[in-house]
Amino acid sequence: MKNINTFQKIAIVILIMAFSSSIYAQARLVKVNPATQEVTIKNFNTSGNIDVSTWWLCVFPAYTQISAMTGANLDLAPGTSVTFTNSIPINTADDELGLYHTGGNFGLAANMADYLQWGSAGHPREGVANTAGIWTTGTFINVSAPFNYSGNGSQNGVAFWDTSLGLEDFGLNTQFLVSPNPASNSVTINFGKTIQSGEMVIADMLGKTIYTKKLSNVSSDDLDVALWSQGLYFISLQTNEGAKTKRFLKK
């Protein structure tokens, strides 16, 4: 009977650990605005609250517990989020941000819940995020802030982070479309209006610019991507009215 009880206890501990890992994976960063220092965390669970009051933010080498940054309710119900001002200064152009569900050892991948970096790769906690399966080494967000997460809660990496630039950046009637998406041989980029003067810049997932083109009195453009490597690309359209970025997948 003692052996059975021991096995039962071990099984319970394993179940608790598995459940905890699942819970941690379902709360993550969904918006980061370095310009205002605002950070938003969302509970992606379909059931079960997640209390993030004891969680930590890391902008290496500084770490601060979330409960010390805000008096808001941090016991997040399923599908809800909390926005607060990060007390650790983050650089608008080039930095990283890590979210940890457990403090004490911020170099331990098992303690990290989420991560993103922008401007360049190789930030101090990139390796931890890579080991945790949250981020791919060498990749970074290469679009303007604020940064918004577009995944379903379980999807990781730079492919699921984009800007919040809207239609108003070019005027309310602008529809900046890329089709087909994904693409194998060619893509058509429809600017939705005639671009009098501007530039189109395309970068790969590593942030490397692979294509640029000056635009003058055009409303669309066709690209031959047949020889491009498979992966995610970012098309940035820049005019004197603003800027907007779209993603497309080369398959």
Terminal CA distance reads 58 Å
How many beta-strand segments? 18
User: What is the percentage of strand-forming residues?
Assistant: 35-45%
Strand order of the largest sheet: 7-2-1-10-11
Query: From the helix content, strand content and strand pairing, which structural class follows?
Result: mainly beta
Structural notes for this entry:
With 251 residues, the chain is mainly beta. It folds into two domains: 2-163, no CATH class; 167-250, Immunoglobulin-like. Helices cover 12% and strands 40% of the residues. It is built from two helices and 18 strands. It has helices spanning 2-25, 126-132; strands at 27-33, 38-43, 50-51, 56-59, 62-65, 75-76, 81-85, 95-100, 112-118, 147-149, 161-163, 177-179, 186-195, 198-204, 209-215, 218-224, 231-239, 242-250. The strands form five sheets. A five-stranded antiparallel β-sheet has the order 7-2-1-10-11. It has a four-stranded antiparallel β-sheet with strand order 5-4-8-9, covered by helices on one side. A hairpin with a 4-residue loop joins β1 (27-33) and β2. The chain is elongated.
